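Recall the central idea of this unit: under ordinary conditions, the amino acid sequence of a chain determines the structure it adopts. In this exercise we apply that idea directly, starting from the sequence alone.
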Amino acid sequence: MDKIPQHVAFIMDGNGRWAKKRFLPRVAGHVKGVSALKKIVDHCDAIGIKNVTVFAFGRENWNRPQSEVSFLMKLMLKKLNKELGELNSKKAQIHFIGDRTRINHEFAKCIEHAEQLTANNTGIIFNICVDYSGECDIIQAVNRIIQDKLELPVTEQIFAKYLLTSHSPNPELVIRTSGESRISNFMLWQLAYSEIYFCQTLWPDFTPIELNKALEWYNNRERRFGKISEQL
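Accordingly, the structure predicted from this sequence is:
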């Protein structure tokens, strides 16, 4: 592959359907999905993708059954505690993106510790979106700009610095699994010119081989940014 994107974002969809197909509880799909994520992040690091963002828990996901929400929060806490040492040894820099006011105290403290521990690492930047929405990201940026009393006009470049993902470039490639064809309130500003790859594979079955297929597709795309195609 000639082009390795610097930033790949994942909408990890299909855990529940994966479990249902196997007559398992939905939470079994989430457990399997976390295992798939570890392999994908390791593969991204190995092939030189510098920034990875995953949509782990959207703001609208609070509307799911309380038992499932509680399980997801405990699962993320457990896996973060388990994997943090390895991620740090690989020089990964971890960022949790989203609103932390509704996250329980233990998870919030673990998030803070992970970010502080890896803040100066120089390896892959791993963004985990929890209680995140693209709309809220834009609103918080507007409110911070108002609070800072910036001189008008505010440019696109200035505005981007106030987004929660300002430490990473905008994703060149977004991958959504499970056959759904929408972005579900994910990084609305940042995806303005991203290439979006929709695949039928359910997230727990998404492997490095599937990622390579997406990257091959990306390599065949012509990113024009409003310009006329060179092929025309």
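The longest strand covers residues 51-58.
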